[in-house]
Amino acid sequence: MASAPRWVEAINKALSHPDNKGKIIYQVATVDASTAPHARSQVHRAFMNPEGRPDLPLLVTSTDVRTPKVAQLRVNQRVELAWWMEGSQDQFRISGFAHIHPSPAAPGDASQPTPIPAEAAALKALEATTFDWEAKRLEIFNKMSPSMRASWCVPRAPGSKLDSYEEQKKWPREVPLEPQNGEDEKNLEMAKSNFALMLIEPISVDWVELGIQPNRRTIFTREGEKWTEQLAIP
Amino acid sequence: MASAPRWVEAINKALSHPDNKGKIIYQVATVDASTAPHARSQVHRAFMNPEGRPDLPLLVTSTDVRTPKVAQLRVNQRVELAWWMEGSQDQFRISGFAHIHPSPAAPGDASQPTPIPAEAAALKALEATTFDWEAKRLEIFNKMSPSMRASWCVPRAPGSKLDSYEEQKKWPREVPLEPQNGEDEKNLEMAKSNFALMLIEPISVDWVELGIQPNRRTIFTREGEKWTEQLAIP
């Protein structure tokens, strides 16, 4: 069986470094319809791969389907994320395609997954193996904390206008998986419908090791379905 | 006199939080000629503003003039950076224009500063006050550590192919400001010629406070030369 590219091991090794505890936040860059860049912090939830294809890893993260990034990804699916692990001084820059899998209950067109680009071999492989996207979406949703889950119950798109902090007082603070009452049930349904799975399929990874002297840099590139690596000038 | 927008104070306050010690690294997103996004970590060096115009702040960072980001900025000067301050759980997303001021000694076209967009009021104001770009560039260069300065002495563009780690052994490890010999002098000249000043002019700032409950979000927008702020849904 094909094996995972070496950069996955490098990331896992860096994550296990005691000084990198909790360093599961990276900054994801996208491009909007007017070709302006955007960047925001997201939480790395897991790696995954199509069954039997550890050589085609994907990163699992999530979003609110109403955020501008989803609209941006419907226009341009290219992303690059910068993952800075301060403790070990490692930087991983991961470039590739993002795929949004929303809830089938999201309103109107928002329920449509983003199209899968022809070059996105891992996403294509998932599609070919009739991967259960919805089960994966719910698996990640169910792992979230009740307070995190409440963040998908804001009444309008994140980033949209708020008249006063007073309004926030009416929003749920926690959305438990086991509703205790009708209010909890309604909130759970809303959170579940706004929560979208976001998968990132890397096609190149640029790893800089600033923690060692002289610094090292390795660039991993996928051509077709094959990963190659090349030393580079830091 | 016009005063600094409130987000500058918010960043400085977050930076002074004891748990945010050393959090001067942000991830800067750019767009390349094929409209793919890119993101990398950069070090925040300082704020600055045109004389008498604290209402038009800029962020000071730097780069090697040979990096792909400089080529990207020559095509598209829009940038957005995400500044995550883990200790206080503040995120600042700063969107605007980047300006590269290279060394006049950089080879050929690389010595040309990037053009200043008409909407870039702060950069325009600097230009109008005959700001001494080169003096600023050297001020920042001179503040760098000797080992940081050595990073601009790599023989080819950062990111380009390296045949083996053996080659690195010939590169200088330190470039002191006061050369002790001809080798030091040559290295200082090379570092100085590859070092470019990078200024970022913000036109909108999206501040999310995840350290307080309920979370807060404030979006600052510059229209013309005037900053306004609006509460937003986190």
Automatic annotation (TrEMBL), chains A, B:
<dbReference type="InterPro" id="IPR024624">
    <property type="entry name" value="Pyridox_Oxase_Alr4036_FMN-bd"/>
</dbReference>
<dbReference type="InterPro" id="IPR012349">
    <property type="entry name" value="Split_barrel_FMN-bd"/>
</dbReference>
<dbReference type="Pfam" id="PF12766">
    <property type="entry name" value="Pyridox_oxase_2"/>
</dbReference>
<dbReference type="GO" id="GO:0010181">
    <property type="term" value="F:FMN binding"/>
</dbReference>
<protein>
    <recommendedName>
        <fullName>Pyridoxamine 5'-phosphate oxidase Alr4036 family FMN-binding domain-containing protein</fullName>
    </recommendedName>
</protein>
<feature type="domain" description="Pyridoxamine 5'-phosphate oxidase Alr4036 family FMN-binding">
    <location>
        <begin position="5"/>
        <end position="101"/>
    </location>
</feature>
